[in-house]
Specification:
Bound molecules: zinc ion
CATH class of the largest domain: Alpha Beta
CATH topology of the largest domain: Rossmann fold
CATH superfamily of the largest domain: Vaccinia Virus protein VP39
Helix content: 25-40%
CATH architecture of the largest domain: 3-Layer(aba) Sandwich
Shape: globular
Number of strands: 20
Number of helices: 15
Number of domains: 2
Structural class: alpha/beta
Length: 443
C-alpha cells in the first residue's frame, strides 16, 4: 500500500513566512525575513492517513536539529514551526510539519561512533545469535551513519553487508569493503536491492524509524525486501520514557514519530510484520529494540507491552493533554532556574546534539547566558547551535575559558560527560546541572 500523503515541494502554496530566530551571539542587528521554503504541514496521520489529529503542543519556531550553521545568515540557521499532535485513531504521536528530507539529512552531523560504539559492539555480539544469522546471510542496515555497527558485524565474520544512508559526508567514513548506497530507503529502492543482492535475513534500522518522510512506503519496502524467514530489527525512542522523563528536548523535526507499542502494532501489521520480541534499552534516554518478522506475533510479548503502556495511560487521549502541561511547566522551570544563576557566573553546556537545539531554543532568553557548547564530534566543532547561535567548541575550552556551571544538554551520556569534564578542567570543578526531568545539580 502506498501512502497518500502529499509529496513535499518547496513551492507549496502554504509555505509560510518564517523568521530565523534572532541570536544574541550574532553580530548582525537584523536577519532578513526570507521565506523559508522546504516545509509543509500535514493534516493527516502519517501512519493511518485519517484526519483525526489533535494538537498536543506547539513549540513555535525551532531550527533543524541536524543543522549546525557557520554564520547567522546561512540557511542552516533558519527556523520552522514545530507542532506535535496525537492521532485519535491509531495513537501515533507525530510532528505535523514536514521538512524536505534533503534539508534534514544531506549534511547530517551526527556520528554514531562518537557515543554509540559500545552499544553497537554489544548489538553485534547478541542480535545475530537471536535471529539465527549465518555468516554469509545478507544484512542490510538502513540509516547506517558512519558504519559503526557494520564495522562491528564485519569484524565478527558477517561480511555480506549493505549500508544505506543519504548523508555522503558521513558514509565516506565507512570501510570500502562494505557496500553503501547513498539514498533514502523506499519501496522502489527495496525492489532495486532485491534484484541486485537478493533478500536479506536481517534488516536493521536503528534510530531511523522515527525520521521517515513516508513511514508506509518505508515498511512496504521492508516487507518486499525481507526474506520470508528474516527479521526486521529496529530501535526507536520509547514514548513511555519520553513522557515519564519530561523529554521534550527529543522532539524536533528530524524525529517525526514518537512510537509506543500501542501505535506500532497496527502500523507493522498493515505490512504483514509482527512483533516477536521487545527489549527495553537505555540508548537515547530510553528506547525499544523491536524484533519483527512475517511470523505470527508473540502474543505474550505484545500483551505484556500493551498492558504496561495502558498502565501509563498511553492508550488514552487524556494522558497526552497532561503531557502538554508537563512540557510547558518543564520549559518554564528550566528557564527560571538558569535565569536565577547569579550574574557574572559563567555558564557552558555540554552536548550539541539535536536535544540541545530544541532545549536551548525553547528557553532563548536563558540560553543567552551560555558562553559556549562543548561537543566531542569533529563534525560540529567550529559551528554553532542554530537559532540561539551559540558556538560549538572542543572540550579543551573548559580549561582555556573556565566556567562556573556546565549544563549537560546530552544528559543520556551524563556519566561519560562528567568524567570528561573532570579530566579536562584544570582549576576548580564547575557545578554540573542536569536539565531534565527537573533542573538538578549533581553532587
Ligand atoms: Zn493514525
Amino acid at each position: 500500500m502506498k501512502s497518500t500523503l502529499r509529496p513535499l515541494s518547496p513551492t507549496e502554496e502554504y509555505v509560510r513566512d518564517v523568521q530565523p530566530a534572532v541570536s544574541p551571539h550574532s553580530s548582525i542587528d537584523s536577519i532578513p525575513k526570507d521565506r523559508t521554503p522546504g516545509w509543509s504541514r500535514s493534516n493527516r496521520c502519517a501512519s493511518c492517513n485519517c484526519e483525526e489529529l489533535e494538537t498536543v503542543y506547539e513549540f513555535g519556531s525551532i531550527p533543524l536539529a541536524g543543522a549546525f550553521p557557520t554564520t547567522a545568515h546561512c540557511p542552516q540557521n533558519a527556523a520552522y514551526p514545530l507542532t506535535i499532535a496525537i492521532c485519535r485513531n491509531c495513537l501515533l504521536l507525530q510532528v505535523l510539519e514536514l521538512i524536505d528530507p534533503h534539508l534534514l539529512f544531506d549534511d547530517y552531523r551526527y556520528l554514531s561512533s562518537v557515543q554509540l560504539l559500545e552499544h553497537f559492539r554489544q548489538y553485534a555480539d547478541t542480535v545475530p545469535q537471536i535471529v539465527g544469522l549465518e555468516s554469509q546471510s545478507l544484512v542490510v542496515e538502513v540509516g547506517c551513519n558512519d558504519g559503526t555497527l557494520l564495522h562491528e558485524l564485519y569484524a565478527r565474520g558477517f561480511t555480506n553487508l549493505l549500508g544505506i544512508d543519504p548523508a555522503r559526508n558521513i558514509t565516506a567514513r565507512i570501510d570500502k569493503r562494505i557496500a553503501v548506497k547513498n539514498d533514502f530507503f523506499s519501496r522502489s529502492l527495496a525492489e532495486q536491492i532485491r534484484d541486485e543482492r537478493g533478500r536479506p535475513s536481517l534488516i536493521i534500522a536503528n534510530n531511523v524509524f522515527a525520521h521517515l518522510p513516508d513511514v508506509n512506503d518505508f515498511l512496504d519496502g521492508i516487507a518486499h525486501l525481507l526474506d520470508e524467514d528474516g527479521y526486521f530489527v529496529f530501535e526507536v525512542h520509547s514514548l513511555a520514557d519520553l513522557i515519564s522523563g519530561h523529554q521534550f528536548d527529543t522532539i524536533y523535526h528530524e524525529h517525526r514519530f514518537y512510537y509506543s507499542i500501542t501505535s506500532l502494532v497496527p502500523l507493522l501489521q498493515r505490512y504483514g510484520l509482527h512483533i516477536q520480541q521487545v527489549d527495553h534499552i537505555s540508548t537515547h534516554g530510553g528506547s525499544y529494540r523491536i524484533f519483527a518478522s512475517a511470523k505470527a506475533a508473540n502474543i505474550e510479548v505484545v500483551e505484556r507491552e500493551l498492558g504496561f503502556e495502558s498502565s501509563l495511560g498511553l492508550d488514552r487521549l487524556l494522558e497526552y493533554e497532561d503531557f502538554s502541561r508537563v512540557i510547558k511547566s518543564t520549559i518554564s522551570r528550566l528557564a527560571t532556574h538558569i535565569n536565577e544563576i547569579p550574574e557574572g557566573h559563567q555558564i557552558a553546556a555540554y552536548g550539541a546534539a539535536g536535544r540541545a537545539v530544541t532545549l536551548l531554543n525553547c528557553i532563548p532568553d536563558a540560553a543567552q547566558r551560555i558562553s559556549y557548547v562543548v561537543d566531542d564530534s569533529p563534525e560540529r566543532i567550529g559551528r554553532h547551535i542554530p537559532g540561539v547561535f551559540i558556538p560549538v567548541v572542543s572540550r579543551e575550552a573548559l580549561a582555556d575559558q573556565p566556567v562556573d556551571t556546565v549544563i549537560i544538554t546530552a544528559w543520556p551520556y551524563k556519566e561519560v560527560i562528567i568524567d570528561r569534564i573532570r579530566s579536562t578542567v584544570t582549576g576548580p570543578m564547575p557545578r554540573i546541572l542536569m536539565p531534565l526531568p527537573s533542573p538538578e545539580y549533581v553532587e
